[in-house]
Amino acid sequence: MKRRPLLIGNWKMHKTAAEARAFAAALAVPAVRLASTADYVVCAPYTALHVLRVTLPRAVALGAQNVHPAAQGAFTGEISTAMLHELGVRYVIVGHSERRRLFAETDAWVGEKTAAVLAAGMRPVVCLGEDETERAAGVTETVIERQLQAALATVTADQAAEIVLAYEPVWAIGSGRTPLPEDAQAVAGWLRAQLAERWGTAAAARVRILYGGSVNADNLGGFVAQPDLDGALVGGASLDPTSFLQMAHVLTGGNA
Ligand code: 13P
Q1: What is the whole-number distance in angstroms between the Cα of residue 20 and the centre of ligand 1?
Q2: Which of 240, 228, 243, 235 is CA-nearest to residue 214?
Q3: Is 50 an active-site residue?
Q4: Model pTM?
Q5: Cα-to-centroid distance, 200 and ligand 1 (Å)
Q6: Environment class of residue 75 by beta-carbon count within 10 Å: exposed (0-12), middle (13-18) or buried (19+)?
Q7: Could you read off the pLDDT of 183-220 as tens digits, one per residue?
Q8: What structural domains and CATH numbers belong to the chain?
Q9: What are the tens digits of pLDDT across the range 28-87?
Q10: Is 182 a catalytic residue?
Q11: Residue nearest ligand 1's atom 2 by CA
């Protein structure tokens, strides 16, 4: 089964609203060339979501980088799924390694967020990946399996098409180092086999799996040529509109 290719930019803590508007403006004219055969998403800081909603070309969907799983409440500084959905957000990153590492997010907490995002009618982009020490110890699969089981604890097979998994080895993020595409494929194939055990082959075949970590327009092609990799979650290289468009072009085999 062919899945729709997916390119997601994760801006992290970059771009003011004015800078986001400039990005959207730069995309606006070339965006008419964005192939309709793929999905494109920008996950911006909360403060830039509104301006992007009104300025981003329609071909580019809006994403957020985090969410709180509760519907509402006394959680100073947090943002709910309803607040994001109302702003037009369609994708929400959950369990990014920076949040796990710097903000002490647990596997179970990521599971709660995944469930909340799905319940609100948005797509969770669930990040999984081993760090350098775990890689050296040869426990990549153990780590990712633990993260996966917790993240999908309450997710059912009929929600598979709404799920996006992003395999992001922590050592590859922002480092300029990447695994070989074949090695990323090995993890993605293993992930899909885990999903098939859980939900059956048909549902597992509907889940989009991305690679993330030092992706750019030059190396993206190698990853998306792999059978189980459907696109990329991109940090640094997604900040520049020209680079974003180049990656969209690569993603769709030169048709963007
Ligand atoms: P870089 O593409 O900057 O390595 O970041 C990857 C990432 O963390 C995307 O979520």
Answers
A1: 18
A2: 235
A3: no
A4: 0.97
A5: 31
A6: exposed
A7: 999 999 999 999 999 999 999 999 999 999 999 999 99
A8: 6-251 (3.20.20.70)
A9: 887 778 889 999 999 999 999 999 999 999 999 999 999 999 999 999 999 999 999 999
A10: no
A11: 235
